[in-house]
User: What shape does this take?
Amino acid sequence: MQVLIAEKCGFCHGVRNAISVAEKTLGQAKGSGGVYSLGPIIHNRDEVGRLAKAGLRTVENIEEIQSGTVIIRSHGAAPEQMGKLREKGLNIVDATCILVKRVQHIAEEFERDGYNGVVIGEENHPEVQAVMGCAKDVVVIADESDLCKLPVKGRLGIVCQTTQSPEHFGNMLGAIGRRSFSELKVINTLCQEAIKRQESAVRLCKEVDVMFVLGGLESANTRRLAELCKKYNSETFYLQNWKELDIRVVLGKNVAGVTAGASTPDWIIDEFVNNLKAFDTGRSQ
Assistant: This one.
């Protein structure tokens, strides 16, 4: 089977840095206490599992950590969480993506300057949760149904979850602009690498018979890729790895496209592509 890979896919710089930091920390910490990640270091179960075998322990609560080293995942952590870690005397290694860190700083600046902070994104996503912890009364707007949360005639300081699409960001800004406010200050916090992956995926999905989007089901940026591809190619499938492929979806197809989220490791992509290339799509079920 002919397999085409999106020009931009897989690990972004922030995720690659987080994985590198984790591997380095695990290597240096042997015999000096446990190494923990406060929440999954990235949103990919396969990669988290690989690191777990090397000794990285993922915990959801700070109370679970008594000693050792804590890695702050790529999505960041709220200042209150950082304070608790310091109080416990833990060694902190910060692997927060620099773009996520920028959003946190902007939220703090908005509060200091008297703006009501607004984040366009998913309230339960760890990146957004960390940003919410950087200022009081931050409002999160996922879609137009959340616009009722906005203060009337407020001074609004708006940022966006880094992995949202430019289209959604623009649509939401338009919707907010049609409501009552006294001032709007908008800072574009979209990740350009995420945008490049979105554009590359859309271009490719229009050229193939079937499209595969690889990545963790918890990954917001991978989910966005799948949603965009589905708009232009109904034969789009969102999978975590090769094991999840139902072979029937490629029978009779000639050309497949493959893209992957920013938290999908190269080894997952390579395994999928190599297996797909070797598959005879003309064979019977």
Remarks:
- The chain is about 40% helix and 20% strand.
- The chain has a mean pLDDT of 93.
